[in-house]
Design brief:
By secondary structure, the chain is of the alpha/beta class. It has 15 helices and 15 strands. A 7-stranded mixed sheet has the order 2-8-7-6-5-3-4, with helices on both faces. The protein binds ligand C6P.
């Protein structure tokens, strides 16, 4: 595949050809075709869905529901198992509020990990506080990884929910999720999987994994902001209570009774993000065309190159040398990650610095934060060189103080 041709499809690269954009873990850039899909909706048929009794509204409704189909195919789900949300955070919270609050009691256990993003562990901390269930953490190994053995050490038949990340946004490790899901089910627990850093980077098939819930965001996979997905097994979604009530999710409303539509609609209150769903479907088609084989290979090549070069620089501590994905977390001895980020910015290198909304793992690493470079398939080898030069510049600059 021609990387220059790929990059030509991105306005950000056309306008900043030398920019090393290494912050796709926070948000991926958008190719023109995704932006055009949004524009097409707003310019040509930008009206509400499910309500209007006129052609334009039928067209918008068809496109919105067609988008759900494309996204369902992308993750191997059924159409009615795809709930549109604002993003991964609202999807993860929906499971905690709608499943957790109604199914957990004192004496039950929830298992999570120190690798979670706040949007994955905080909702369960809160549910446990309110229901009296106990929150347990899988002990991490010496590299900071989740292992099946460690999971077994905390799993009991009191466990009702496992809330776990598929890929850590700080360490980039892939969780051995298949075995964990199997063991959790044998113990009678359901598994809610945070797929925010997995779905954009590798093939995720919910039926093959047999996860109960999967949450992810559109904006990390070349899609628009403000749209995400909660996948849930239909039989679970069917039993769950909605947590937001109002327009479009209602079936019948009387003075003394209310009924709701079937999933996924009972979880989609009010006017949905129609453009977002259409844009996300376009992003899924685009990623399918690029292909996960290419994405996985390219990210691995770039991360290996970057780890090799960073490891040669004195005073650079790489926390996740063996990770399988395009995320590298490191620090420069004696330099605050935010200070380093400012020097990187002057060098045209965009990275993220800090705790990455995952303070449990930065605490585990005994650091206030890390510098995080996150690669995607549109990055070049030159981006690695720009990163390495930026690190050298930061070292030199702060060495003077
Ligand atoms: N992580 C990062 O820079 P939202 O913000 O709702 O789209 O996604 C939340 C989320 C949930 N889980 C994981 C593993 C994530 O990485 C994120 C978002 C970004 O790492 C922004 S904090």
């Amino acid at each position: 595949m021609d990387i220059n041709k790929i990059r030509q499809e991105y306005g950000v690269f056309r306008n900043n050809p030398n920019l090393a954009y290494l912050d796709s873990g926070a948000m991926a850039l958008k190719p023109d075709r995704v932006v055009k899909a949004l524009e097409d909706y707003y310019i040509n048929y930008g009206v509400n869905v499910h309500r209007g009794v006129y052609q334009l509204s039928y067209q918008a409704t068809d496109k919105y529901e067609e988008a759900r189909n494309v996204i369902a195919d992308f993750i191997g789900a059924k159409f009615e198992e795809v709930v549109f949300t604002r993003g991964a955070s609202s999807a993860l919270n929906l499971v905690a509020s709608s499943y957790g609050m109604f199914n957990l009691h004192e004496g039950d256990e929830v298992i999570t990990t120190e690798l979670e993003h706040h949007s994955s562990d905080m909702p369960w901390f809160n549910v446990c506080k309110l229901t009296g269930a106990k929150l347990k953490y899988i002990p991490l190994d010496s590299e900071g990884r989740i292992t099946v053995e460690a999971f077994k050490s905390v799993l009991t038949n009191k466990c009702k929910v496992v809330a776990i990340t598929y890929v850590s946004n700080v360490m980039g490790y892939i969780t051995p999720i298949r075995e964990i899901i199997k063991l959790a089910h044998e113990a009678g627990a359901i598994v809610t999987l945070d797929g925010a850093q997995a779905v954009p980077h590798m093939k995720v098939d919910v039926k093959e994994l047999d996860c109960d819930f999967l949450s992810f965001s559109g904006h990390k996979m070349c899609g628009p902001t403000g749209i995400g997905v909660l996948y849930g097994k239909y039989e679970l979604l069917e039993k769950m209570n909605p947590i937001e009530f109002g327009g479009d999710m209602a079936d019948t409303v009387r003075l003394d009774s209310q009924t709701y539509k079937l999933p996924p609609y009972k979880f989609e209150t009010g006017t949905p993000n129609v453009a977002g769903a259409i844009g996300l479907a376009e992003a899924c088609k685009y990623i399918n065309e690029i292909g996960f084989d290419y994405i996985v290979k390219r990210e691995k090549m770039l991360r290996d190159l970057a780890v090799e070069k960073l490891s040669l620089i004195d005073g650079v501590i790489v926390y996740n040398k063996t990770a399988e994905t395009g995320i590298i977390s490191f620090n420069i001895d004696g330099v605050h990650p935010h200070d380093a980020a400012s020097v990187f910015d002057n060098n045209g290198v965009c990275i993220r610095a800090g705790h990455h909304c995952a303070q449990l793992i930065t605490t585990w690493l005994k650091t206030i934060g890390t510098i995080r470079a996150s690669f995607y398939f549109y990055n070049r080898e030159e981006d690695v060189d720009l990163l390495v030069n930026a690190v050298k510049d930061a070292k030199e600059f702060f060495g003077k103080f």
